[in-house]
Amino acid sequence: MSLKVLSVVSEAYPLVKTGGLGDVAGALPSALAPHGVEVTTFLPGYPSVMKALRDAVVLHSYDSLFGEKAQILSGWAGKLKLIVLDLPGFYDRPGGPYCDASGKDWDDNWRRFGAFSRAAADVAQGKFNMPSFDVLHAHDWQAAMAPAYLHYDGAHVPSIMTVHNIAFAGWFPNDIFVWLGLPWHAYSMHGVEYYGGVGFLKAGLFCADAITTVSPTYAEEIGDAHFGMGLEGLVRARRDRVYGIVNGIDTEVWNPAEDPHLLAQYERLTLNRRLQNRLQVEKAFDLDGGTGPIFCVVSRLTTQKGMDVLAGMAENIVTMGGRLALIGTGEHYIENAFMDAAKRFKGRIGVKIGYDEELSHLLQGGSDAILVPSRFEPCGLTQLYGLRYGCVPIAAHTGGLADTIIDANEAALSAGVATGFLFDEVNHDTLSRVLSHAIYRYQDRPTWKALQEQGMRMDFSWRRSGQRYAELYRRFAKKNAPELAEEPAPEEPLQEAVSG
C-alpha cells in the first residue's frame, strides 16, 4: 500500500533554491517513489512557483490566514506533485525567499512561515474535503511550526522534523505568540517558548514524533553545546527519537557523463576528458594556465563555512603553486576579501560573487579539488558532487563531511579506499598543512587519479537514504494505519543516531 507523505519545505529545486535544502527537497519525491512512498511537496507561492504550477485546482480559500486572503492550490511542476499556499501578500515580493533584495530578512517572516505551517497542518489533516496524509515531513525552521500545529490540534497525523542546519532556529519576540492561534499553554519550555521568545525550530523539535538530521555525525554533534545552538538539551532529551540519515544527490542532475553544463562529458574511465573542462574553468575565471591544481569553492561565503579563514589563505595558495576559482555570496566583508585577493593575484585567483548553476557544474567538472573548510556542516552536498565528478574534496572533519569522505592517509591510500583530504581545526595552520599535503599528492599523478576514481565509485545516490526515510515513515505511520507496516523491511535496519 502506498504511503502518502506531505513534504513541507520552503524551497525545492528547480523551482526555488538558495542552497542544499532546495536540492534535497527537489530530489526526495523521486528517491522515495521506488519504496512505495508518494510525496507531495507543499511550497509557498513564490512567483517562480506560481509561474511553474500547471493544472492548478483550488482546494480551499481562506478569508483570513494571518490577516491575508489566501488559497490552497494543487497541481504539478514538472515531476513534482505540488500543493501551494497562494498568498501574494506574503510571497509575491522581490528578493529571495527569506530576504529582501538587499539581503535583509523580511520583518514579517514569522507571519509568512507561521501561515505556511498552519496551512500545511490543515492540509495534512485533510480539512478541505480531501484525504489526509499518512505523514507530515517538515524541513527546517520555516516549516517547523507545522508539527506544533498538528500537536496542539490533537491531530492523528504523525510528523517528522528534519534539521538541515540547527544554527537557523527561527527565533522571534514573544509578542508574536498571540497571533499564532495556539493555546496559551503552548507558550512554555515544554512548547514553543525559546529564550524568552518563540522558537519555530524548537517547537518542531519538541512536538514532532521523530527528528532527523542530514548525517549521522551531525545527529551526534547537535546534542553537544558546541554545535547545538542552545537546543542541545532538547535534542538529548529526545535522543531515542533522533535519527541521522545522510543526504543523497540527484544522480540525473549531477551526472558528468551527461551533464549539459560541461564542455566535455566524461566517466570514471575517461577522466582525461576533464582537461577540456579545466581549460573552460580557466577561461570563465580569467585564470592563467599552469600545471598546479585548480582549487574551487562553491559556497555561501560565511564564517560557518570557514570562508573567513580561506580568504586569508589566498597568498599561501598562490605561493604553493595552486589557483583558486570561487563562486558564492554571503557576508560582505568576506566577499570583499576574496575580491581583493582576485585583484592582488590576477590570473591566479578568480572570483564571481553570486550563484550560477551552470558554473557550479563546470567547477566540479573541471577543477582538481573542492575546498569545504566548514566549522560545522550538517551534511554538505558540494563534497558529494565533487566525489561524483572526480573533483577531490578537501574538507573539515565534521558532520556529514566526516561521514562521506575517506581521508587520504597512508593506510587508506595503501588500501585504495581514500577519496579526499580531511583536517580537524579550521585555522590558518591546519588548512595550510592540508593544502600542502594535497598539492604533494597532486604531483603524484597515479595517486591523484586513484583518488578521483575511488570517489567516483562511491554511491551517494538517494537509493539507501530513500529506503531509510521510507522505513522511518512507516514506523510512525503504522500506529494509525497498521496495514502500512506490511512493506518489506529495508536491506539494513535504520539505526538511531543518538543512543540512549
UniProtKB/TrEMBL annotation:
Q: Which reaction does it catalyse?
A: [(1->4)-alpha-D-glucosyl](n) + ADP-alpha-D-glucose = [(1->4)-alpha-D-glucosyl](n+1) + ADP + H(+)
Secreted recorded as keyword: no
The protein's GO terms of the molecular function aspect are: alpha-1,4-glucan glucosyltransferase (ADP-glucose donor) activity; alpha-1,4-glucan glucosyltransferase (UDP-glucose donor) activity
| Glycosyl transferase family domain residues | 291-437
Record bears the keyword Transferase = yes
Binding positions (ADP-alpha-D-glucose)? 17
What are its E.C. numbers? 2.4.1.21
Q: What is this protein called?
A: Glycogen synthase
Give the gene symbol: glgA
